[in-house]
Amino acid sequence: MKSSRKKKKNRVKWILLGIPALLIIAGAATIGFFGWEMTKETALLAKTVIKPYKPEQSARKFNTEAWPTLPEPGSKLGELSISSLNLSYPVVQGTHDNELKMGVGHMAGSTLPGQGGHVILSGHRDTVFRKLENLKVGDDITFTTPYGDFIYETTEFKIVDAADETIAVPTDYETLTLTTCYPFHFIGNAPQRFIVYTKLKTNPLLQSAHS
């Protein structure tokens, strides 16, 4: 009887010791999985290619002195804020893993505020852009830069396939596009992208030129 009780105690002991170990292993596996999925989504956001950045071709309609040189990868360009979502994050140059960990990434190759072209920003759906699904047509998006506050009005939303690169076409007028992976609550590598289109509402460079 004593031997039987001892064996039962040993089994209970090993079970109690094993449960925390299993939880630790499961937690590490989960962290690793989501870390890998975020890395894959970062690569997806960063791979879109558009025409090279050429500051000498900057806006015919706007101040041609805006952003005369290409900012270094990871350098802060300003702040993106959406008051209706109580959202505000730094915007940095680039959309690779290191940049997107710092905030919202400006897609290299797209123009910058005030240059009169297509400004494209990307961010993770579960960090900086997790509230983007609540954005509404008509909501203002403010890009605060060293040149002032550029305000864009939300005009349209679109859901596209992850491989769709048509969102990155150049434009001859100022517009801001936000991109993130979709669905927002999808577990794993999201198969689509959520796109926010806008129109320029306030340009501080034009205001200063007329003052």
Report what the structure shows:
This protein has helices at residues 2-46, 97-100, 204-210, and strands at residues 76-82, 87-93, 104-106, 118-122, 140-145, 148-161, 175-182, 192-202. A hairpin with a 4-residue loop joins strand 1 (76-82) and strand 2. It has a single domain (38-210), classed as Sortase, Chain: A, CATH 2.40.260. Helices cover 27% and strands 29% of the residues. The protein contains three helices and eight strands; from the N terminus they run αββαββββββα. An eight-stranded mixed β-barrel has the order 1-2-3-4-7-8-6-5. The model is unreliable at 28-40 and 46-60 (pLDDT under 50). The N and C termini lie far apart (97 Å). By secondary structure, the protein is an alpha+beta fold. This is Class D sortase. The active site is at 124 (proton donor/acceptor), 181 (acyl-thioester intermediate). Keywords: Hydrolase, Membrane, Transmembrane, Transmembrane helix.
